[in-house]
């Protein structure tokens, strides 16, 4: 089974996501959020999840069959809070589009992924953003990920174009590479920092809630899971 690991960002963000050497988290509060990945087929959504959760990359990742590829959990540690993500990875094929709202409704965060070497996937990403803005939770945190940054020599979507679009629509934006791990942890950490954690709720995750669920007092087992294998 997939353990609850701690994805610690590197370089500039490392100091904000720390854990004690013995695996005990410094965080005093655990908040849980539902996060969904959306985007055209073959842009690397499943690869991003695999890199973030397990630190792995498969060169020949099969396309997701069915609307839902996987439901995985992973945590990032902030100063006094552990943010636990429930990650829903969806298929990008058009025939599954009508089922997608079942998965992003109630999500507090979404990552819309496109391939920097494919202009059509960027146009499709814009459609997903519009749909989220229209139908998803009002306070959802949306991040735009230009994946496959390792294919810069085949680039079709300029960084500046995507950044301008993200700024105009109040989106987080990073170019990522599931293959080389560039910005993958940083993206999830940036989302974790933007999610509201000041008014946690006690109890199970409820679709449509826009705040984190405080898991700290639910079970003693939850308290020290962050950064354990």
TrEMBL record:
Provide the reaction this enzyme catalyses.
GTP + H2O = GDP + phosphate + H(+)
Gene Ontology CC annotations of this record: early endosome membrane; plasma membrane
**Which family, according to the similarity comment?**
Belongs to the small GTPase superfamily. Rab family.
| Alphabetical list of CDD domains matching this protein | Rab5_related (cd01860)
Region of interest (Disordered), residue spans: 198-229
Q: This chain belongs to which protein, by name?
A: small monomeric GTPase
Composition bias, kind Polar residues: at what positions? Answer: 199-208, 218-229
Q: Which GO terms describe its biological process?
A: protein transport
Q: What is its EC class?
A: hydrolase
Q: Which UniProt keywords apply?
A: Endosome, GTP-binding, Hydrolase, Lipoprotein, Nucleotide-binding, Prenylation, Protein transport, Transport
In the UniProt record, the gene name given for this protein reads RAB5B
